[in-house]
Structure formats: C-alpha cells, structure tokens
TrEMBL record:
Domain of life: Eukaryota
GO MF, one annotated term: catalytic activity
Gene transcribed to yield this protein: LOC123451370
Organism: Hordeum vulgare subsp. vulgare
Sorted UniProt keywords: Membrane, Transmembrane, Transmembrane helix
TM region positions: 40-62
Gene3D superfamilies with a match to the protein in the record: Amidase signature (AS) domain
Domain Amidase: residue ranges: 177-582
Name assigned to this protein: Predicted protein
C-alpha cells in the first residue's frame, strides 16, 4: 500500500493466465486525463515540478494517477526479473527464404537481396499514373537510372540539395534535417558517379541517398541527439557500424535528420532545431522520435533512412508519414555508434518508401560479426511472387486492436479482410494480457536507462539547455525507484512468456501501428515543446512489445483517414523471423498500395531537367 493508500495489484503466476479469446483478463486503456500543456503553461509546470518537496509530491501524484505505482512499483509479482530482451538462437522455420552465406561483405549481401526481389519492379512514377496517386522511386530505380546513364548521382544530389534548401526555408519550414553538409554530399556523389562511369559501382545502393537520424554517429557530423549540447560534450569519432556498412555499399549519407530531443517524446516537436512537419499535411506532426527520417522518406528525398527505435520511435513516425518502418530482432543489428540512451529496449531501425527497399537496406546493415551460435544466420525473403508464403496465422487481440480511432479501426479491419480474401490467411482471436502494465513497465525501464546513460552529462548541465517538455520527462525518469525498475523487469519476464505462448499457434501478432493519425502541430509548442499525454499514449499504444521484448516488428501503410492522413498496420513476429515479417508486409503493401494519395510535399529526384 502506497503513501496515499493506493492498493497495489497482485499478479497471478503467468502460466495461470488465460490467453484464449474468451479470457476474462481485464483490458486497461491508458488512464490519461491530463489536458494538453504547452507554451507558458508548460514552463510554469516545470518550475513547480523542479521545486524541492512540492515537485516530489507532484511527481508522486502523477505516477499514482497513471497507475505506475499500483501496477508496477508497489505490485506483487511472482516472476523473477528478466533484465534484457535478447533472444537465444532459435531455429525458426520460415517459408520461401534465401539463406545468405556467413562472412559476406555488406555489398555482397545487397547483391543477395537483389536476387530476392521481383524480376522487374514497375516504374514507380510512371508517366501515365494520375498525379495525385503515390508512386515511389525505389533503390532499384535509382540504380537502373545511374547504370543506363539516364542521370547521375551528382545530378540527383544537386536536386536533393535544392529540395532541402527549399523545404528548410521560412516558407515551408519542414525542419527535416538538423545538419546537412552540401560539400560532403556532392563529394560522395562525385565519387559514386565516377564509379558508374568506369563500370565499378559497389552495389545497387551506390549513389542512393540515405538519411541518418541524429542519434547515430555519421561523419563528418556531430551527433546531437536532438539537443544543442550533446554534440559538443560527446565527440563523434567514427561512423556507427550500420552507417559504415551503408558507406561500404556506396550509399550517399545525406545528413543528420531531426528528432525529438533525446528521443523523449512521440511528437517530433523540437524547440532547438525546429519541428519536423508531416509531408501529408504540414500542419500535422511527423511523429517521434525519428521524425525527420520518416518525413524525408515520405517526401521522396531519400528512399531509405535510418532511425532508432526504443519505444516505437521508428514505427510510429513511419505510420504517421505513410512509409515502411522496420525494427529487427534485438541483436540483429549492431548498436555500435548509436547513442546509448536505452540499452535494453533501443536499437537502430529502417524507414523506407517500400518493403523492397527495406529488404535491401536490411541486408546491408545486418550484423554478422557474432558467432552463429549466438544468433541465426540471415534469411532474406524471396519476394518473387505474391503471395510468396501460405497458411499465415495472424493473432489478433480484439479489445486492444479496437482501442483506436474509428478510421484506423475500420481501415485496419479492411486490410485484414483483404489478407483473408486474397491470400487465405487466417486470423486467430487471442488475448494479450496486461498491455497497459507492459507499457508502464517499459516506461519505467526506458526512463531509468535514459537518465543513467546521461547522468555524467546532466549532472554538469544547466537546465536551461534542455527543452521544457524534456525537463519534465527527465524529472519523471529520475524519480523511479530501484523497486520500480526491478518490478518492471519481472513484468518483462511475464510478457516474454505470454508472447512465446501465443507464437506457438500464430506466426505474427497484428495490430494498428498507432491509435490516432497525425495530430495538429500547435504554434504554442514550437518553442517549448508540449505535454500531450493523451495523444502520446494513443501513439505508443501498439509499440511496446517490439522494444520491451526485443521482437521484430514492421509497419506498412494500409490506407488513409478521412482527412487524407496515413494509417499503418503492424506485424510483430517471433524472434529472428524478419524474413517472414517482410514477406507479410510485402503482401500487404501489394494489396493496399494502388490508390494511396501522394503527400502534399513530395520531390521527384529522378525527373529530367
């Protein structure tokens, strides 16, 4: 029992919990009642929060109000803690895959991936396509254009830089990038052009623009983490492992994309570097924290971008911006050179215009440096026919699935019906227990790890250097007790058990990617950030298992709401089942992508001058 008399939850042993469709398990929707706060009000809130004694009491009330104390900190949980989300080697049977040989270079793996793609993807911006319909240039389109001499990486780079300059100006103020060095971009493009002229491109990614979230080291840029101080406090001395692999394939590293400060938010609003806007509607948020990476892919500036996903931070903005967001199994990619903001829940991920491009980029950056007994060898999906796999079983928890806006619920249900009709795939009704408990346990975990990783900097930093909304987040993070952290890891153990049981009968778990579509970017939040816990909880509702449990997950656009904003559907897979997820996402893309409308802000980088 807590200080103010709140009774704590007593959990039954996990094996006693019914996971069937008729389970009596209570579904708890996030208990968020606080109104949106921004501008002067958020500043006043921070001043009160940082006051001695008064601030502590306010924090306790906030945690009590959103059930952290009752469901996590003070709860009685029978399971021991599980401290990491890594998975042991498992022989996961997958249909229609190509097993890559160990020891291949990134460029060699990319060549293997190309062999898995359909023989000839149709031109994605065909001349006869209606101007309002979305068609995207793919990595293969750029490669063919370069190889045929139709255009060159230098010409594309110049168009890209002109688009960045235009979109960054006061008229549009899209705030896609924190830093973009034109001289460096052109230098890379000139080197790539020369390789094509001499017939020696490194891979199909040679000359292809790839943006990098400013949470990942990429020379010659500092890594700011969306702050105005971290790039000075921590030197960037080398490319991150995933960036180095892309560079080895000839990709042009296009710059460092905008993000929510320290990844501590879901909107992408950043008072220091501007707030990345949604290309579908510039008055809406792009989502966070990988806001800039999602927006540049959406706007056609890059077919691929890198993000970091600690709590849906790749998949949420991907869904809001209508692109593919892919987070592999924990441990499948190297975290070397990624800011260590959340050790056990975060990792790099891929944002791409198409599933095919996600496959190619994934093949380039996968980490094969570890012994095979620690992780399975790399399977790539053979996307040579649709459907390329059969008898897929999709687990759906109805109460959770339906806890979304009417437009999202209707669109995602229609997408599932399409999968049944076109491919004969089966939807299984299940119960995924303790969804809200898992969200809160993840919040305690990611917050505790963030403050621990940044402690050596925060202890010396002036509070005024940090955005107002992030000051609130850091205050809450720093208030979590060791008991709260340990209980969160006990809940992680329970959830790992539940999900493994569900995967005994299902291939993937399916859900909407977000509970709401992109919401309005308010002017009063631009300089202060905002506290919008209602929209924040709706955005993150379906993200947690991928991070807290280290499971692979992917989102793909399946439609648009009545206002024309994208809607994403998510598939969560067994550990190491990336190929199956990519198969399913590709089938979903092929079934739903024909009539997607083009974003309001969209650049055609292969147009003829």
């Amino acid at each position: 029992m807590g200080v103010f008399g709140s009774s704590a939850k007593v959990y039954r042993p996990a094996p006693e919990v019914d996971l069937g469709p008729g389970s009596g398990e209570l579904y708890i929707s996030p208990n968020v009642k606080a109104p949106r706060v921004a501008g002067l009000l958020v500043k006043i809130f921070v001043w009160v929060l940082e006051m001695p004694v008064v601030g502590w009491v306010l924090l306790y009330i906030l945690k009590k109000d959103n059930l952290i104390n009752k469901l996590v900190s003070e709860a009685e949980i029978p399971e021991p803690p599980l401290f990491t989300s890594t998975h042991r080697w498992e022989d996961t049977p997958e249909q229609n895959v190509s097993l890559t040989k160990p020891g291949l270079s990134p460029a060699e793996r990319v060549r293997e991936a190309v062999d898995c793609l359909p023989a000839r993807l149709e031109s994605t911006l065909a001349a006869d396509a209606p101007s309002s319909i979305l068609k995207r240039w793919t990595i293969m389109d750029f490669s063919r254009a370069y190889s045929s001499g139709e255009t060159t990486p230098v010409q594309v780079a110049k168009r890209f830089l002109a688009a960045v300059e235009e979109s960054s100006g006061p008229t549009m103020n899209m705030a896609f990038f924190i830093s973009c060095n034109p001289e460096d971009v052109l230098k890379q493009a000139e080197e790539s052009t020369l390789r094509y002229q001499t017939g020696t491109p490194l891979s199909v990614m040679d000359g292809v623009l790839v943006a990098v979230k400013d949470e990942i080291d990429c020379l010659p840029y500092p890594t700011t983490g969306g702050t105005r101080w971290l790039g000075k406090a921590r030197a960037c001395e080398a490319d991150a492992a995933c960036v180095a692999q892309l560079r080895a394939c000839g990709a042009i590293l296009a710059g460092k994309t905008n993000m929510h400060e320290l990844g501590a938010g879901t909107s992408g609003i950043n008072p220091h570097h501007g707030s990345a806007r949604n290309p579908y509607n510039v008055g809406k948020v792009a989502g966070g924290s990988s806001s800039g990476s999602a927006a540049v892919v959406c706007a056609g500036l890059c077919p691929v971008a890198l993000g970091v996903d600690g709590g849906g931070s790749v998949r949420m903005p991907a869904a809001l911006c209508g692109v593919v967001g892919f987070k592999p199994t924990a441990g499948r990619l190297s975290n070397a050179g990624v800011l260590p903001l959340n050790w056990t829940v975060g990792m790099a991920g891929i944002l791409a215009g198409t599933v095919e491009d996600a496959v190619v980029a994934y093949s380039a950056i996968v980490d094969q440096s570890q012994p095979s007994y620690l992780r399975p060898e790399l399977n790539l999906p053979m996307l040579t026919s649709t459907p390329s796999i059969s008898n897929v079983r999709l687990a759906k928890y109805g109460k959770w699935f339906n806890d979304s806006s009417e437009d999202i619920r209707s669109c995602c249900d229609k997408a599932l019906q399409t999968l049944r009709t076109q491919y004969g795939w089966e939807t299984l009704d299940v119960t995924v227990p303790e969804i809200e408990e898992m969200r809160l346990a993840h919040y305690v975990t990611i917050g505790s790890e963030c403050t621990a990783s940044l402690a050596k900097y925060l202890d010396k930093l002036k509070r005024s250097e940090i955005g107002w909304d992030v000051r609130v987040a850091l205050a809450v993070y720093g208030s979590f007790s060791s008991r709260a952290y340990l209980n969160s890891q006990r809940l992680r153990n329970r959830q790992m058990f539940f999900h493994k049981e569900i995967f005994k009968t299902a291939d993937v778990i399916v859900s909407p990617m977000t509970g709401v579509t992109a919401y309005t970017l308010q002017d009063d939040a631009l300089s202060s950030g905002e506290l919008d816990y209602i929209n924040g909880a709706a955005l993150i509702r379906y993200s947690i298992a991928g991070n807290f449990l280290g499971l692979p997950a992917i989102t793909v656009m399946v439609g648009q709401d009545k206002g024309g904003l994208p809607i994403g559907l998510q598939f969560i897979g067994r550990p190491w089942s990336e190929a199956t997820l990519l198969h399913i996402a590709f089938a979903m893309q092929e079934a739903c992508s024909k009539n997607h409308r083009k974003p309001a802000v969209f650049y055609d980088l292969l147009k003829k001058d």
